[in-house]
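quick q for whoever's on today - can somebody do inverse folding on this one?? i tried earlier but teh output was garbage lol. tokens:
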């Protein structure tokens, strides 16, 4: 059985970080589809089909930053988990914030992992491998 391409929703307000992440994924053999949202409000609009597509592309994984304008990553996670259609979304936090209270708050919202940008930048192949492993071996919610 061949899987459909993975769709990554990158929720990132920093244009340089977003461009870097998109470029790295474009050089990956799997070449997932990537949509970039600049904050939680934009991300929810994409996931709810309000931005250029009828429904989110399945399967998808969300990579979200914490510190963003308008709706930050923690506010986005709370809203996401309260939405019956989206609450099972698989989310990884990818942020520069190493604050313990933000880590705790993110895990309280059932994130799959909390990754620091500094660690990921040192060896981005680890993130690519993590996402590829997740996509290949995890059964996504229906």
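ok took a stab at it. sequence:
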């Amino acid at each position: 059985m061949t899987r459909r391409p993975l769709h990554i929703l990158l929720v990132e307000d920093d244009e340089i970080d977003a461009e870097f992440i998109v470029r790295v994924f474009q050089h990956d053999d799997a070449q997932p589809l990537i949509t970039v949202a600049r904050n939680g409000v934009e991300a929810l609009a994409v996931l709810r089909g309000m931005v250029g597509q009828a429904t989110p592309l399945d399967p998808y994984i969300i990579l979200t930053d914490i510190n963003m304008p308008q709706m930050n990553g923690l506010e986005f996670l709370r809203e996401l988990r309260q939405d019956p259609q989206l609450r099972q979304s698989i989310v990884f936090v990818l942020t520069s914030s190493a604050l313990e209270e933000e880590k705790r708050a993110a895990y309280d919202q059932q994130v799959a992992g909390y990754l620091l940008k500094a660690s990921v930048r040192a060896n981005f192949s680890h993130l690519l491998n993590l996402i590829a492993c997740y996509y290949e071996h995890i059964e996504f919610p229906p």
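fwiw The two ends are 17 Å apart (CA to CA). also The first helix runs from residue 15 to 26. so keep that in mind when u check it
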